[in-house]
Amino acid sequence: MNRRLALQRLSALSAVPLLPWSGLVFGSTASTLNALPRTALVIGNSRYKDAPLKNPANDAGAIGDHLKKLGFNVISQLDGGKAAMENAIRSYGELLAKSKGVGLFYFAGHGLQVSWRNFLVPVDANLGSADDIPRQTVDLAALLGGIGKAGNPMNIVILDACRDNPFGGDLKSGKGLSQMDAPIGTLLAYATAPGNVASDGSGANGLYTENLLREIRTPEAKIEDVFKRVRLAVRRASQGQQIPWESTSLEDDFYFLPPANLKKLSEEELARQFAEESAVWEKAGQANQIAAVEDYLKRYPSGHFSELAQVRLDRMLAKKGEKKVSVVNTAANPFSKGTGVIDLNYRIGDRYVFRSVDLLTKVEGKKLVNVVSEVTDDRVIYNKGALETDLLGNMLKRPDGATFGPSQFFVSEYHVGKKWSTRYSAKYASGHSDTIEIEFKVTGRETVTVPAGTFECFVVEGRGWVLSLGMLLEYKYWVAPDKTNRFVAIESWWRRYNRIQRSERQELESYTRAG
């Protein structure tokens, strides 16, 4: 099949309705968000009577100035009491309701969590006990709910408020802020991972805001890439003691400084960009140096190898002595579905048995028994070399002789709303080769029962294509990182010419950890 015909068929397939369980829409086109009015409320509280802070007022002033240059109508408030903060928030919501544009709320100052609820602290708060907190502070959940009533299409909420409780008394508050899942159409950004504390900084600005100020000025950077670059810079500057965190439910692309001409790239342009990215990633692998991996992540924060790069960076920095902070979360938190991190520590003798069944005919296939026979720095070898994956479980070699380029079908960390993409090569024993591209999203959590047991799982849905064949691929898989480092179940559908060519469900029948 020639390239033009393949692309025509691929275009036709992309219009075919998805299978019943799939509600994903991928491939954002030129976003109308970037032409909408922009409104921001910026609050910086420094002058606390009992626990003053050096930088929040400076941070808010600098953020406000930068946002004005980026086309935002900015409402600024420095060192506000509770009444002033609530009035400003109310006015901000009214402006959003009128403009129906993009909203940005920024707060720098003290923040607290009590019973998984997050509170922003005004400068006139006098907190002696936990009962004082709801009365004298601003409840973040209520703030988000109020903003949501404005009916505007997108909100950005940035909280540089993850400092430890300095007020003393019987507050019974946890460290930093508690994890929250972003409401629909919202990006929620914390200065550090939930359950941890952020630095107020030693210069004119806090560590987080200092880096945010630099990155929002980057031309043509998607908003997710802005915050990923901030995360990398803050992590390195703090030696892993402060790692910014985001939760997002955005579907369209937003740019602080959008390209002059937003357009959907052709397959030829995408292929050229992928070749350039692949060369940078291959160079980083050959160099085997922290700086080379960082260079890749700075250039491609949401790249086709970015999840793999994060894992490599984690392992390299850990060897250098970094004590990386992690998200503190629990099933008791009613405001979040949590975060799951895959255990990358495999042992020789670990055994995983999967059963497979055709989803249409219900005919059961051959059981797949995978026993770890060797573990290297970057891969897991099963059944004496018949099967190989990377440490995340991404296929590198199958028993039938097929081999695969680096991919990120599976990733190291899961939380609801997370999105990523992968593009990789596949070469088969017949000599035929393909390029496969898939986009994924964590869509929720479900309780799943398979022969190996009952698991509380993150649900991941994906949609992609075999580019040379014009074949549509659809996936749904379930992972339980707190229980097993392999998937619990996965459903796969291959469609061509609007007909299902193949369907399969694999599920975990048993697993045994060695030792």
UniProtKB/TrEMBL annotation:
PANTHER family in UniProt: MUCOSA ASSOCIATED LYMPHOID TISSUE LYMPHOMA TRANSLOCATION PROTEIN 1/PARACASPASE, MUCOSA-ASSOCIATED LYMPHOID TISSUE LYMPHOMA TRANSLOCATION PROTEIN 1
Source organism: Candidatus Desulfobacillus denitrificans
InterPro entries documented for this protein: Caspase-like_dom_sf, Caspase-related_regulators, Pept_C14_caspase, Pept_C14_p20
GO molecular function, one term: cysteine-type endopeptidase activity
Recorded superkingdom: Bacteria
Caspase family p20 domain span: 38-166
This protein's name: Caspase family p20 domain-containing protein
A Gene Ontology BP annotation from the UniProt entry: proteolysis
Pfam hit, one: Peptidase_C14
